[in-house]
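Quick question about two entries, pasted in order.
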Amino acid sequence: MSERRGPDLSRLSDAELRALRERIDAELSHRFRSRQRGERARGGLVEGPAPRYRNPENPAETWSGRGPQPAWVEALRARGVRLESLSIEDDRPIPADGTRRRR
């Protein structure tokens, strides 16, 4: 037989259980938002344009297609490589509503 941990919830009324669930949901939501704020502050959640181009010689190097071209793009283009050949396929998940914002 498994050992129960925590309070005996079977003694709570339906209204008390609903109130407890609302408090738990609110606390979990608060913690989630706090973690997101912390990750953004540390640079972990980057909410910018997704990369559109990748350096085939160094896959860690990407470019969103906005702003000045990085040196690796300029060097490849100087060698005759077409920008289109550096494109990254859009592999982001499709939202539940089936729409995807353009980059």
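Here is the second entry:
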Amino acid sequence: MQSQGRLVASFVFLSIFSAGCGKDMASWNSFPVPIYADASITSSSSRLSDFNDAMGFWESRAGKKLFDFKGTWGGQNPPYSGSPDNPTNILGNVIYYQSPWPFGANVAGRTTVFTSDKDIQAAIIMINPGLSYCTADCTNTTNETSSRRDFAHELGHFLGLQHVNDSSNIMNPELQPGGTLSDLSVDQDTLDKVTNP
């Protein structure tokens, strides 16, 4: 099991994502990967739009369909057994707002990936419901977290990507307030490795 999240502003990241580089990197064995969202995302047109844009961000850079969005998760809530900080089983690939939020108040999201050898078997994305989020491009805000950027970052972990130190990269662990996806980069070589099993 691997976990990694994203912090807001300039707080220090506490978890370590344990996938390595190159051939040692964990990845899905085929695409597109089925994924669901909880009703708090699918029932809000602005959140759903941000989620679709975040999936599109990765698919446009990979040059292929990566996600098979199945709609609203209708299974057990939450979609795991165990505790949110230590799930013992993932019941479905779901992105959802985890309440109560068990991690630091400054942690915007947390992705937990279950692997077998180097194959990702299942993953869940937990989003912090206690933050103030902006939707769409968030170009006129300096104090709200971009849900679009948060979703995209966590989807990067869902795909098997690690944090990077480059502040212009979507996988940087510090989520700056506001902003768009169009001004962010990706490590294309690493993305190609995890999306071409």
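Reply: The longest helix spans residues 45-62. The first strand starts at residue 2 and ends at 8. Hope that helps.
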